[in-house]
């Protein structure tokens, strides 16, 4: 029996077992050798009944995922870059950040966020394990250190004199196998009155909206406020505020500080604590029965594909996103079902999706195919993608999303005018 990666308790409550799948961002060269060498790993989410930390039972080593060639670049999402700018503007105003301040982002990727602080004259430092993404950030003038962040890395930075007034960790807390060691680094370089913010998809939405496709090997943990407060407290950090965000299908932004800092707890924090308790996130019942709801979505999507093929419809997809790969692999579909998937990132184009081996093309190439149905795999970017690809409507094409709220599990809609 496996044990909790945070507290060591025995894990016996399974949220969902998605079988063995390839790494969600391990895009393949279109060669027989690459396909033959593809590896699969167990993808099973368990629930710790002591801390309510949801986590993968099998942990793929982080350096096997986030290597130099890791292909995810945040700046290819317009809405995510806009979200980052709103954050930067709000933090500069709220915490009076300026030329004498320092903002450190952990998992800074290609500088999508720090570029906004930099443009406002606030000194920045990015910490990013993927060398390629860090090099893109450096080209934007964002100083970046290529390293995995933990207590030892933080001590090295502290010895160089780095002390942050603001630390940002967007969608990285779930990505670290040693969550205790990761959060232990924050107090070491956080100024006495400094603030650390953590953004992560909210577990409550994963459960209520059956967002099982957000489960993949890069996400070692699936987080509630309840679990995150416990984890941060173990490192001497105190949560004092929280915001709900629409990103990634519904996320939280948690504000934390040193235990002795002067930041006061907000009413929003108390309200969300109560909301999670009401939703039962502190009891096993909230997690049971999730697998049957996952299977209902899968069966609805397979029914849609069968009907589309019977009707002679040309089905493609948009977004070579990690969540889409989890979804497609659990459904067991391939290039016979979905002819191609488009993505704006040229690093992904002319490669194959992991597992399903669907070819990745440019958005322009997808439009030339004149598809009848375009399945939007990164459903959290539905509106942005529908706007960008509205031209499919010129030949009668429609968009498709998989929707837990729909009776058939499928929503079909026209492109925006």
Structure in a nutshell:
30% of the residues lie in helices and 21% in strands.
Describe this structure in words.
There is one protein chain. With 417 residues, the chain is an alpha/beta fold. The radius of gyration is 21 Å and the shape is globular. The model has no long low-confidence stretch (mean pLDDT 94).
How helix-rich are the residues, as a percent range? 25-40%
β-strand number? 17
* Distance between the ends: 54 Å
Number of helices: 14
Mean pLDDT: 94
Rg is 21 Å
Outline the low-pLDDT stretches: none
Major sheet size, sense and barrel closure = 7 strands, mixed
Overall geometric form: globular
Strand content: 15-25%
The secondary-structure class comes to alpha/beta
Spatial order of the strands forming the largest sheet: 6-5-4-7-8-11-10
């Amino acid at each position: 029996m496996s044990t909790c990666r945070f507290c060591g308790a025995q894990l016996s409550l399974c949220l969902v077992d998605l079988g063995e799948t390839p790494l969600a961002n391990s895009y393949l060269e279109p060669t027989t050798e690459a396909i033959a060498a593809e590896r699969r790993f167990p993808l099973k989410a368990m629930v710790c009944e002591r801390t309510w930390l949801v986590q993968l039972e099998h942990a793929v080593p982080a350096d096997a995922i986030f290597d130099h060639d890791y292909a995810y670049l945040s700046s290819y999402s317009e809405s995510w870059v806009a979200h980052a700018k709103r954050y930067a503007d709000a933090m500069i105003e709220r915490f009076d950040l300026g030329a004498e301040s320092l903002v450190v982002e952990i998992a800074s990727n290609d500088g999508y966020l720090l570029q906004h602080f930099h443009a406002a004259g606030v000194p920045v430092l990015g910490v990013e394990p993927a060398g390629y993404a860090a090099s893109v950030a450096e080209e934007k003038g964002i100083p970046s250190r290529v390293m995995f962040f933990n207590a030892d890395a933080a001590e090295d930075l502290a010895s160089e004199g780095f002390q942050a007034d603001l630390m940002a960790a967007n969608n990285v807390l779930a990505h670290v196998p040693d969550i205790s060691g990761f959060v232990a680094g924050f107090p070491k370089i956080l100024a006495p009155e400094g603030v650390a913010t953590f953004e992560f998809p909210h577990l409550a939405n994963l459960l209520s909206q059956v967002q099982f496709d957000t489960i993949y090997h890069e996400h070692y943990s699936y987080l509630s406020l309840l679990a995150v407060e416990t984890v941060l407290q173990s490192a001497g950090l105190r949560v004092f505020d929280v915001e709900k965000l629409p990103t990634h299908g519904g996320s939280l932004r948690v504000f934390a500080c040193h235990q002795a800092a002067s930041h006061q707890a907000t009413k929003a924090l108390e309200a969300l604590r109560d909301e999670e308790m009401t939703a039962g996130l502190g009891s096993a019942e909230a997690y049971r029965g999730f697998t049957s709801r996952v299977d209902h979505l899968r069966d609805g999507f397979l029914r849609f594909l069968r009907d589309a093929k019977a009707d002679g419809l040309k089905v493609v997809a948009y977004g070579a996103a990690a969540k889409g790969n989890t979804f497609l692999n659990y459904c067991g579909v391939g290039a016979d079902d979905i002819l191609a998937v488009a993505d704006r990132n040229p690093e992904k184009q002319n490669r194959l999706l992991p597992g399903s081996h669907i070819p990745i093309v440019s958005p322009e190439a997808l439009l030339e195919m004149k598809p009848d149905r375009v399945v939007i795999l990164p459903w959290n970017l539905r509106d942005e993608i529908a706007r960008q690809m509205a031209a499919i409507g010129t030949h009668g094409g429609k968009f498709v999303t998989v929707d837990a709220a729909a009776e058939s599990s499928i929503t079909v809609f026209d492109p925006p005018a």
